[in-house]
């Protein structure tokens, strides 16, 4: 990952994926002019899907959530470039890719400083043909071996020492070939110790139960046992 740093701006980018000036990669008007915007998704903000020169990508601006976010939409306190939300996320994705984890390939990230605060954007690979588990379970049930695969995926993440602080079934995808992926590593970090791993699993469990109540997904409480079997490397 290359880094370009100026007084008020820092850009991280993969030179194998970025052609020309990396700054234009964060300009949605530039992509519209290229007729390269293929879609968008609404969340805390809008994520734009872009057909890039090397792959399809997702461009996301960082927005605050919660009550504070109603007053300060997208500004964060500056504590150094590597501590920015985008810098931390793109470096964590690069680390996980080195560990052969199925996470989106990081393309580029940018933080722009204004006084004591900054705004940020990140550009990552869009996994082709992938859908999150909520969408999948809204239509079909999963088999026990699917849930064991989910458990194994989380175990690999934990073995790499990474806590996904928003581990839920919106952030676990499955592509057309059945491969599972993890996305959205904003505010995630490497951790020592063991207790956080149990807490992280419990968070995922709550996500299944929440979506069952909210959307009536095709998940049953007994399916969780298969997730734990996969996590603990129990084959049957």
From TrEMBL:
Catalytic activity: an alpha-Kdo-(2->6)-lipid IVA + ATP = a 4-O-phospho-alpha-Kdo-(2->6)-lipid IVA + ADP + H(+)
InterPro entries with a match to the protein in the record: KDO_kinase (IPR022826), Kinase-like_dom_sf (IPR011009)
Molecular function per GO: ATP binding; kinase activity; phosphotransferase activity, alcohol group as acceptor
Active site residues per record: 166
Membrane topology: Peripheral membrane protein
Subcellular location per the Swiss-Prot or TrEMBL entry: Cell inner membrane
NCBIfam families: PRK01723.1 (NF002475)
Purpose: Catalyzes the ATP-dependent phosphorylation of the 3-deoxy-D-manno-octulosonic acid (Kdo) residue in Kdo-lipid IV(A) at the 4-OH position.
Record-given protein name: 3-deoxy-D-manno-octulosonic acid kinase
């Amino acid at each position: 990952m290359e880094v370009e740093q100026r007084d008020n701006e820092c850009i991280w980018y993969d030179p194998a994926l970025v052609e020309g000036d990396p700054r234009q990669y964060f300009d949605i008007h530039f992509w519209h002019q290229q007729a390269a915007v293929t879609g968008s998704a609404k969340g805390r903000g809008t994520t734009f899907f872009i057909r890039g020169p090397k792959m399809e990508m997702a461009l996301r601006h960082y927005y605050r959530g919660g009550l504070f976010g109603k007053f300060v939409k997208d500004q964060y306190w500056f504590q150094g470039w590597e501590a920015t939300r985008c810098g931390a996320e793109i470096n964590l994705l690069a680390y996980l890719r080195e560990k052969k984890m199925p996470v989106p390939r990081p393309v580029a990230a940018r933080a722009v400083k204004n006084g004591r605060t900054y705004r940020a954007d990140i550009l990552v690979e869009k996994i082709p043909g992938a859908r999150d588990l909520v969408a999948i379970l809204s239509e079909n049930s999963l088999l026990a071996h699917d849930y064991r695969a989910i458990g194994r995926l989380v175990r690999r993440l934990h073995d790499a020492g990474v806590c996904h602080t928003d581990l839920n079934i919106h952030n676990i995808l499955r592509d057309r070939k059945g491969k599972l992926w993890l996305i959205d590593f904003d505010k995630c970090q490497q951790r020592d110790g063991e207790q956080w791993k149990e807490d992280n699993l419990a968070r995922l469990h709550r996500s299944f139960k929440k979506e069952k109540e909210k959307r009536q997904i095709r998940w049953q409480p007994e399916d969780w046992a298969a997730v734990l079997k996969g996590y603990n490397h129990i084959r049957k």
